[in-house]
From TrEMBL:
Pfam families (alphabetical): ABC_tran
Record keywords: ATP-binding, Cell membrane, Cytochrome c-type biogenesis, Membrane, Nucleotide-binding, Translocase, Transport
Organism: Herminiimonas glaciei
The keyword Transcription appears for this protein: no
SMART domains on file: AAA
Protein name: Cytochrome c biogenesis heme-transporting ATPase CcmA
InterPro entries the UniProt entry points to: AAA+_ATPase, ABC_transporter-like_ATP-bd, ABC_transporter-like_CS, ABC_transptr_haem_export_CcmA, P-loop_NTPase
Annotated signal peptide: none
Record's keyword annotation contains Membrane: yes
Length: 225
């Protein structure tokens, strides 16, 4: 079994953590990706997870939202073990995966209604406004197989503009396929969310603008064997 490295604790100032990783170790296909990873995130924190392809960024995000289990260690959410909150996770965190996840035969509006269904109910006006916010005005009724990769990504990201969202956002490669304007807009939206007391964890190869937000950095590549 290959050990790709140990982590140091990331010291993030804290009272009651929104999200806490406690000595997490992760394996995939009997291959050790990381060991002893610990950090805490508070309201207002933005954590960027970066590192080379295959270093375990998406795997870490999946641990943090309870989709997979660590080989050792655990994740706490709002001060309680995440595994004991399985039935209520949709109201506590929002995860957007690295694939756009849209259905080709559904329209932009239908896709967003479906993607947002875990967090909101009804409210067509909100769906329309969210699509407008990501620049898809006029594409509401277009089936997604007729949209570009960047436009499909924008549908997935439109979830971040729906009302009554959980405050903790876990985003896997959210900047993929976005143009410069879309990237800038998303950075500003994430910064605004944190300014309002939200918490964001994202994986990306993209260099975030330091001016947009004083984000924390976790470089998995530093720990690769
Ligand atoms: N579905 C899977 N089944 C088994 N192993 C997987 C699976 N997906 C990824 N892996 C392995 O887990 C390791 C980490 O993958 P992961 O997707 O977490 O990396 P990453 O840092 O997000 O990569 P990238 O920058 O390419 O998105 C890789 O070695 C990969 O081969």
């Amino acid at each position: 079994m290959q050990n790709l490295g140990d982590f140091q604790n990331i010291k993030l100032d804290a009272t009651r953590p929104v999200l806490e990783a406690i000595t997490l170790s992760c394996e995939r296909d009997q291959r050790r990706l990381f060991t002893g990873l610990s950090f805490q995130l508070q309201t207002g924190d933005m954590l960027r997870i970066r590192g080379p392809n295959g270093s375990g960024k998406s795997s870490l995000l999946r641990l943090l939202c309870g989709m997979t289990q660590p080989v050792s260690g655990h994740v706490d959410l709002f001060g309680q073990a995440l595994v004991r909150q399985r039935g209520t996770l949709a109201s506590k965190l929002l995860w957007i995966g690295h694939a756009a996840g849209v259905k080709a035969l559904l329209t932009a509006e239908e896709n967003l209604a479906w993607l947002g269904a875990l967090h909101m109910h009804g409210a067509n006006a909100s769906i329309e406004q969210a699509l407008f916010a990501v620049g898809l005005r006029g594409f509401e009724d277009t089936r997604c197989h007729a949209l570009s990769a960047g436009q499909q990504r924008r549908i997935a990201l439109a979830r971040l503009y729906l009302p009554d969202l959980p405050t903790l956002w876990l985003l896997d490669e959210p900047f993929t396929a976005l143009d410069k304007a879309g990237t800038k807009q998303l950075e500003a939206h994430l910064a605004r969310h944190c300014d309002r007391g939200g918490t964001v964890v994202l994986t990306t190869h993209h260099e975030l603008s330091q001016q947009a937000y004083a984000y924390k950095d976790l470089d998995l590549g530093q720990y690769a064997a």
